[in-house]
């Protein structure tokens, strides 16, 4: 009868990797170090008056926290929005430049062909460009067209 009593008394007490006390009639898993086994058959019992055992170290983080990931996501979204805005501005600028170049080419062709070019003064009256004004306009057109290539 004493043989059965000792088998029933075979209990294990240990602290797992999360810091929680575990009580079982089976031995702890092999991954539990001996210093965390508080009670085992054939081992001295746990002494509550002994110096307290140090807390298990917090498990090492394998990656960023949720807050860090959220901040990174918001930063990337902001950068993407800025890049999209910049690309849209550049596309608009290229379209405006292309339209200005097209208008300037047509204006230059009209001057080269000798077509009379009309303009309006501040009173709203129409007048035709003189040869000196056409030469000045042609000079300005060449400057603009130099940047269009």
TrEMBL record:
Domain of life: Bacteria
DUF4124 domain: residues covered: 2-51
Signal peptide: none
Protein's name according to its UniProt entry: DUF4124 domain-containing protein
Pfam families, alphabetized: DUF4124
Biased composition, class Low complexity, residue ranges: 48-60
InterPro entries found in the cross-reference section: DUF4124 (IPR025392)
Region of interest (Disordered), residue spans: 21-101
Compositionally biased intervals (Basic and acidic residues): 69-78
